[in-house]
Amino acid sequence: MGKNTIFSGQPIFNQLLTFIDKSEIRKIAKQHGSERYVKKFTTYNHLVVILFVVFEGYHSIREVILGLLANAHKLSHLGLSYLVRRSTFAEANKRRDSKVFEDIYMSVYRKHSRFLADSRLRDKDLKRLYIMDSSTISLFKDILKGVGRNPKNGKKKGGIKAHTIIKASENVPCLVRYSEAARHDHMFLQEVEALPSGSIITFDKGYVDYQQYEAFSKKAIWYVTRLKDNALYSAGEEFDIPDQADSGVLKDEEVILYYGENKKQEHRARRIVYWDNENERLFEFITNNFELAAETIALIYKKRWQIEMLFKQLKQNFPLKYFLGDNENAIEIQIWAAMLANLLITLVKSKLKRRWAFSNMVSVIRQQLMNYINMYAFLEAPEKSWLKLIKNDRHKYRNSLFPEMGGLLLKMKYSDAVYQRIEKEKLLISRFTGQQ
After folding, report:
1. Phi-psi category of 146—alpha, beta or left, where left has phi over 0 and alpha has psi -120 to 50?
2. Cα angle at 270 between 266 and 276, to 5 degrees?
């Protein structure tokens, strides 16, 4: 039998870790002083273990340690020289600053972001588009203030809110900030000012802050959002709708929005009324960009749904229901690990020619995480090794004095069900190669 290219000398987990630069981790650890008073459980070791938790979906520290013990003979491949104790792991989650893991995530993102760009987005306006939204993660106790009223019976659960910005061309977070769930979304708008001039950002009407919108206009950052029902404004010039415009565009006009004390401050914006025939809904958009076509503004807001799909992807594949610590720092570390795991698999997906559903790829990697399999070769052609085995067995008996014995020996080698499948695969191969 020829050499099999599917199997590898490294576990799949180690192949995922190759995206992470160890020297960069040491640099980040030095900046934050996260190695101070640490003997063995370094920042890199902590990162590997917390990623192991996220990929395997463990619910407790006890499960984590048992999982590591089950793979003790493979840990050297991951750069782990010893098995961490439960108390050491819990203490590290509490003491090591979550900002360390944020910087590690951003380091990996910046280094590999060029592989994430979607070549299908040729429109220059969509290439500079950012999308912003927040997602709330419920906590098992009132660590951070949750939303809503206090219940009559029992205590209100806490919640942490992840305010996230993604590039429309990449579909992974490029900026994340955490706050208690009760904090209003518009407080996060100040982070948008760090975007380059000429950027376009879209968000829902939960981020209403006309004063911040005015600051965007001064910095040439263009926003697209929806107009709130109780917004106070006066209509100005109405713009002509071109004959070739989308039939859904009903109105395009200049408006002056009033805000601040006694509503004396003003913000000049553009109001677009758009009828979505597909969903049979009427939308009122506002933007500070007066150059883009009205239908382009509607398309930009429609792209906002992309971030909702990202949140769904994260919560389905890396469900954050069980946390390994009961403090804010430990929770943030685990969320950053989930974000990083999502980024690593997205990078793998971007390098494959074969199309995979993200959830299917996560499932395969999770099941084979510590197995010695060439990840890329397997994901490109999972059936290749099996077909090669059949083909080799077929050629093995071609020049035999008793070729009819080949089928009998194969049947003795495999079970009846497997043998029947082999015969079918042999037939497919002969048809494909034109050999009988």
Report:
1. beta
2. 140
CA 353, 356, 357: angle at the middle one, nearest 5?
150
- Please write the tens of the pLDDT for every residue from 20-46: 999 999 999 999 999 988 888 999 999
Q: What CA–CA distance (Å, rounded) separates 144 from 436? A: 70
Structure tokens at 41: 């459980």
Residue where the block lists tokens 């965007």: 216
Phi, psi of 133 (to 5 degrees): -165, 175
In the sheet where 129-138 sits, what is the strand order?
173-180, 159-167, 129-138, 200-202, 222-226, 281-287, 265-276, 249-259, 233-238
- Distance, CA of 247 to CA of 250 (rounded, Å): 8
Count of C-beta atoms within a 10 Å radius of residue 298: 19
Residue 336 pairs in a beta bridge with: none
Query: Which whole number is the average pLDDT over 233-246?
Result: 90
pTM of the model: 0.79
Which of 284, 373, 381, 313 lies closest to 16, judged by CA? 373
Token pair 């043998």 is found at 419
